[in-house]
Amino acid sequence: MISLVEELVLLAVEDDGKIAYTAGSHDFAMSLVGACLVELNLAGRIDADLEGITVLSTEPAGNAVTDAVLRQLVGPRRSVREWVRDLQPQSAVLLKATLGSLIGRGVLEKTEARFLWALRSRRYPIVDGREQKEAKLRILSILLSDELPTPHDTVLIGLAFAGGLLEGFLTRRQIAQLSDRIGEIGGLDLIVRGVEAAIRDEAELRAYTMMMSVH
Amino acid sequence: MITHVNPQDGAALVTATGRLDFEASAGFQKELETAISAAAARKAAVIVDCAGIDYVSSAGLRVFLVAARAAKGASVAFAVHSLTAAVKEVFEVSGFGRIIDVLPDHAAAAAKVGVGA
User: Fold this and answer.
1) Which of B22, B28, B91, B93 to mutate to test the interface with A (most CBs of A within 10 A)?
2) Mutation site for B-interface testing, chosen from A36, A42, A49, A147 by largest number of B Cβ within 10 Å
3) Where are the domains of chain A?
4) According to CATH, what is the number of the domain B2-106?
5) What are phi and psi of A14, to 5 degrees?
């Protein structure tokens, strides 16, 4: 079974193997870090509350991607939003490692092509589409019903929405129509709430910076 | 964390005391799931008295989601009451009040799930 982090990244892979443009955003980067933190929580390496993250054990959990994040969680206790903001620059490395993991599992393959003789185009065509299809169907089923999701699916929906990945299989209008339901279940996790707060922080900072540059 | 389950007419009363963190979460989840299964068998509700829970972490919060899901799946009415200020804040931030009946006291919780106080 693929991990939460792998499932989130898989949602970013389009039918033609390209990585969705939303995966280049800071929002996705922070969602990816959030997924790693949730995995570490589930593995008993950390716990989190409204004040911050507590490292319960530094013993590697056996997952190269999340263990890399675990090694960063040193120093004074800090909030989820602070850790997410600070770790998001490492998301490219986390993404690359997760894609590598999915390739290793035979879910994706990597292809490279050159165009205009010099420019390289890298894609990750889906070899085994079952996991991605199943994840999308599960998300749709939950959003279109009143069933309570599992903790895993709560986090997946919350982080997929925060990271702009629902746009890969839902129109913006559909997402708007489902916004109440997404909001109802996507935030039933304190770490996801921390990711949302980090994304808001960054948006506010961008807006402030823009305002200051105008005046 | 200490948990007591007291089956009564119409409802299983679960009383929990202590910190609901990662270490306590697995045991508490098992207690709740057992109480829900037993309640389902006798068509009873489950009421959780949270007055003694002074802390809940992200891991602990997931237990309530798992329990609510199990209760819904088993058609068991499920409610919590008497949240401490710290736990209430966590429930509010995460929006748990939208999926779980959160009541101020036992009488209100009992009324909500349809049993005598």
Assistant:
1) B22
2) A49
3) 4-214
4) 3.30.750.24
5) -85, 170
Question: What distances in angstroms separate CA A87 from CA A115, A148, B51, B61, one per listed residue?
Answer: 34, 31, 37, 24
Task: Look up residue A141 and give its two tokens.
Answer: 């089923």
- Architecture, CATH, for domain A4-214: Orthogonal Bundle (1.10)
SS3 for A76?
Answer: coil
| Contact residues on chain B for A47, CB-CB shorter than 8 A | 21-22, 57-59
Encode pLDDT of B34-44 as tens digits. Answer: 999 999 999 99
ipTM: 0.94
* Pair B34, B12: CB distance under 8 Å: no
Whole-model pTM: value is 0.94
Task: Collect all residues of chain A within an 8 Å Cβ-Cβ radius of residue B102.
Answer: none
Identify the CA nearest to A159 among candidates A177, A181, A185: A185
Tens digit of pLDDT for each residue in B8-17? 889 999 999 9
